[in-house]
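Researcher: Going back to the complex we discussed earlier. I've cleaned up the inputs and rechecked each line, so this should be the final set. Can you rerun the prediction on the complete assembly and write out the structure?
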Amino acid sequence: MQAQLRIRRYNPEKDSAGYWGEYTLNDVNSNDSVLDLLHRVKWEIDGTLSLRRSCAHGVCGSDAMRINGANMLACKTLVSRLGDGDSIKIQIEPILGLKVIKDLIVDMEPFMDHYKSVMPYFINDDPPPEDGRERLQSQEDRARFDDTTKCILCAACTTSCPSFWANDKYVGPAAVVNAHRFIFDSRDKAPEKRLAVVGDTFGVWRCRTNFNCTNACPREIEITKAIAEVKNVLYTGEI
Amino acid sequence: MSSLMLTLRESVRYRGRGGHYSWIAHRLAGLGILAFLMIHVWETAMANYNPPVYEYAIAVFKHPLFGLGEIGLMGAVLFHAFNGIRITLLDFKPEWWRHQAKSVTIVWGVFLVVFVPIAIYMLSGIISHCGHGANCWAFPTYPVS
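Model: Rerun complete. Updated structure for the full complex:
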């Protein structure tokens, strides 16, 4: 199979604006990932192509990008998912709403600032149990936030959200997911602090329930559901 | 990094699924209703402040173009209402998220079932208005005699 790649390029030291770089790869297999193709472009055609990647197996969340118009992880997206036949066209762009540093690399700091704003760590100043072991929790209580423990902070959700494109003060779906993980943890003692952040003007009320985040999540986290659950806590006052 | 232009451009370019396009349609419908309300408030205010302008506006609104606009307004109100109910239900019932794709299809289906007959009825009104011999495409002159 032949793959025609159209990649958004931008080098701040040379380019006044971004442009499309076009590359043709032969002998592409349908079970190659988009990251494999990007590696081939970088290693065989143009070494200046810049992208982030680390584990290449959908765990580190480094290579979220916009592939054929929608946010995905390059390492988890196989060519077969994008089409079939003897020739395939693939368009690759950086994720939206974050400043492009170079080519497919964006500045993740604003995203991480929103993540940190929801205090994504366990807060409980009570003394540990007398036996000195872990704070116990029922399976039902654990199940309430199981889904939102899976976030890998790739930013595919937040940068697929029109509310985030419109106003980057919005904490975004990823921050709400990570707030949800602790708000619904029966062992945590600071849900009200997190609810104050996600219940603010730039919190969950900016969500327009269009499910882009849920559809973009490479870990298949039920993000819009988690956001709605946080909204429910905010207006019922009950966790 | 956020901007109005980025949002407008990428809302169209982003390849979302049904919920994304329903969101765009919801926004456009909302803007259409807002435009109507602004015209409506202005024209109603003229009934008090400048009756000849009000009478002229009422005569202009009988033009077929405004008739087509009324059909569009009906479509905007219906879609905005049905899609609004869908969003509200999904917000209050997070566990229904699995039905998101189906809910989009249902809203468009219900919208078409309700809107198409109404649109045909309204369109027939425009056609019969234009079938009375007068040149219905001509705009009235001001002041209305």
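Model: Worth noting: The CA atoms of residues 30 and 80 of chain A lie 5 Å apart.
Researcher: Good, that matches what I expected from the previous run.
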